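Supplementary Methods. Inverse-folding protocol.

Structures were first reduced to a discrete structure-token string of length 181. This string, shown here, constituted the complete conditioning input.
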């Protein structure tokens, strides 16, 4: 089963909002595994066309920059939470004969969640790597004391029975060693 990593919105405009270095490090670790295996990687870049106050507004080019090395990999722009809102993504995945997508990036409760659900709906096997998917939002953002956003969203997706949710160490154990489920 051909695999692909979708790296969502690891952009300066998000990553400067709070310390997300641990998540970015885990994203880079997953990327390194995909590169070692010669499995394709695709990046998305969220671009806000409307809200000039947004940290991802098109006019703030330095904030749109992806903060991990995209190397020669495809980078697609999107302006909605799901990466599949850019129709080029599904076509590219089909052209690459991808059947299983892995999702990492930002923000867990928007882009990661919507991309995972859409990918599953479009017929892909989906694995979300929870600790390589973060958010710049906090429990205060949602006025929900004690809320761990990545854990909450990861639990919902896992409980759905439709989407595999792993941590990076589980991903490494299952997919780096060649012993796949």
């Amino acid at each position: 089963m051909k695999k692909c990593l979708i790296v969502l919105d690891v952009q300066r405009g998000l990553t400067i909002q709070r310390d997300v270095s641990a998540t970015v490090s885990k994203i880079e670790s997953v990327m390194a595994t995909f590169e070692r295996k010669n499995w394709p990687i695709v990046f998305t870049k969220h671009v806000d066309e409307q809200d000039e106050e947004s940290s991802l507004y098109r006019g703030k080019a330095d904030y749109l920059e992806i903060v991990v090395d995209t190397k020669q990999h495809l980078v697609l722009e999107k302006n909605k939470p799901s990466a599949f809102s850019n129709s080029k993504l599904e076509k590219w995945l089909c052209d690459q004969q991808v059947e299983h997508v892995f999702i990492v990036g930002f923000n867990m409760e928007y882009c990661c969640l919507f991309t995972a659900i859409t990918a599953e709906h479009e017929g892909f096997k989906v694995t979300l790597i929870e600790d390589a998917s973060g958010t710049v939002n906090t429990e205060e953002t949602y006025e929900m004391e004690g809320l761990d956003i990545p854990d909450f969203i990861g639990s919902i997706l896992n409980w759905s029975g439709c989407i595999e949710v792993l941590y990076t160490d589980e991903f490494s154990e299952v997919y780096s060693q060649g012993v796949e489920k």
